Task: structure prediction
Amino acid sequence: MRVGGPADVHELKDLMITKVAVGPMDNNAYLLRCRATDEQLLIDAANDAETLLGTIGADGIASVVTTHRHADHWQALAEVVAATGARTYAGRHDAGGIPVPTHVPLDDGDTVRVGRVRLTARHLVGHTPGSVVLVYDDPHGHPHVFTGDCLFPGGVGNTRKDPEAFASLIHDVETKIFEPLPDETWVYPGHGNDTTLGAERPHLPEWRARGW
Result:
């Protein structure tokens, strides 16, 4: 996956997931489309509104979720919302740091819908105070989780060498992601390549030991 390259498309029975890389920090944006209703939701209008709107297409989007308040994840948000009229969602404790008003502040366990598809927001503290990840528990297969900058291949998100922030994030990632979800769970991070919980799970003790 690279900026300017073709989108990745993951076709599930009820949901189509399109992944595109945008901007100077190689951010991933994810377009989710309910196959029954054609309603669409965007995760992270990170950058390059032209590319995002081209990916969205003429059908538009009903909503956009910003995973956290860091600026590289919302550079195109104002333009995308202006063009589509989408509802905005973000974690309650990060909404104040996003310069586009949040229509729906998210708390842990809240439901976000795209058409007939139900996603569950989980609040993870450490990378930012209000980061949220979205879990899609596919009734026809394994779960899928959109982790923003909380979980990547090889470790959790950056906690800026703050031991308390790291302890919080690794705890939340373990208890809210790794413990309830199976190894087959597909992980879509805010930057870089996808992974699975099974690929990362054996390394949790190593991450804890190194402190990042």
User: Anything to note?
Assistant: The mean pLDDT is 97. The longest strand covers residues 15-22. The chain has five helices and 15 strands. The CA atoms of residues 59 and 201 lie 38 Å apart.
